[in-house]
Amino acid sequence: MSHALNDSYELYNGVEIPKLGLGVFLMKDEHELIEAVKSAVEFGYRHFDTAKIYGNETYVARGLKESGIPREEIFLTSKVWNYDQGYEETKKAFQESLDKLETDYLDLYLIHWPAEKFVDTWRAMVELYESGKVRSIGVSNFQIHHLEKLKNEGLLQPMINQIETHPEFPQNELHEYMKRNGIIHESWGPLGQGKSDLLDSPTLAKIGQKYFKTPAQVVLRWHLERDEVIIPKSVHRNRIKENSELFDFKLTQEDMHEIALLNTETRYGGNPDDQERLKETSIKPSK
Ligand code: NAD
Is residue 196 within 8 Å of residue 266, measured between CB atoms? Predict the structure, then answer.
């Protein structure tokens, strides 16, 4: 078994994505975010997941700069928000993200949600990819029917789909579809976003006890056993470290079956088919 924290999966275009990254959703405090990024780099994280809508791309850039890590050693993801979707708008939003992140390329750019103009957005993303400005492209919160729609456009297939996934919402059908089609499954909310009692589950405590691991570590390892990319978020140094200590143990088939029983089909985040929400978030607020 590999013990390397920077283990990676290969996307269908040959680009390697580290299995573990740090998510920075809701990290609004500049100092806190910079310290989190620096701790993560210190503990071996080489992958960071942000988005324009998080409003913290400049802080991520600062954290990476202060950590002293060379740009080429980092895998950096950002996402185009709903009100920036459309062909021209996406290209503009991409450049804005590059400027804020103080870089001239991204490792991964994602369509954040399947808003109305997602096909035009994808056309722009494919062009950005083919011009070499981004090493890989993908989508987020896409259901099977959204992926099928893209398939019928005769464009490139997304390399990744970043979707809410945790033991209470394993997305088994979508997971299998993506596996069949060679789309890497990236999990957001891998710990249930702190909105769930998941980590208090006796099942996870019992399994963790066998391996000297916490419930959070068992959940994160469950994702890895399913070949998912994970981007758990924490601002706490001890948790950032804890969430990286996943590569020195393995779950058995029996452990996996027990965790599968925690499935309650509960989403804690938005539903990608909630058209009202997609519409509302596609309107650019006036300044
Ligand atoms: P998460 O599942 O990573 O949960 C984070 C919360 O879990 C923390 O705030 C903390 O309360 C708790 N936690 C973290 N480590 C812990 C530990 N070791 N022990 C106990 N509790 C712990 O949820 P998330 O932040 O929503 O998701 C991760 C990342 O995914 C985000 O930061 C963001 O980058 C991305 N994301 C993407 C989308 C999308 O639509 N594409 C949506 C939400 C999040």
Answer: yes
